[in-house]
Design a protein that fits this description.
Distance between the termini: 30 Å
Pfam families: YlxR
CATH architecture: 2-Layer Sandwich
Number of helices: 3
Helix content: 25-40%
Strand order of the largest sheet: 4-3-5
Number of domains: 1
Order of helices and strands: EEEEEHHH
Protein name: YlxR family protein
CATH class: Alpha Beta
Oligomer: single chain
InterPro entries: YlxR, YlxR-like_sf, YlxR_dom
Number of strands: 5
Length: 94
């Protein structure tokens, strides 16, 4: 039986390649709005972030998403909060 290919993506924060399902996508739409895209299907320029709290916290301190999306801190603070919330939600056993 042929093994199914697992799509891999590179985290913009840690530079690690991981399976797409283990990542969160942050997207900037054509209108310039930046949002977390948990489905991974929204239109726009996307960036993948590892579902790892220490990496997200370090990125917030070093302003990595601000550099990537060329946006200000006020715009991206809610994005960092949403990423952290989604990581905590994924930790809850189903």
């Amino acid at each position: 039986m042929k093994q199914k290919k697992i799509p891999m993506r590179k985290c913009i924060l840690s530079q690690e390649m991981k399976p797409k399902r283990e990542m969160l996508r942050v997207v900037r739409s054509k209108e310039g709005e930046i949002a977390v895209d948990p489905t991974g299907k929204a239109n726009g320029r996307g960036a993948y972030v590892s579902m790892d709290l220490p990496i997200i916290e370090e990125a917030r301190k070093k302003k990595r998403l601000e550099q990537f999306f060329e946006a200000d801190t006020e715009t991206l603070n809610p994005i960092y909060d949403e990423l952290i919330r989604l990581v905590y939600r994924s930790m809850i056993p189903k």
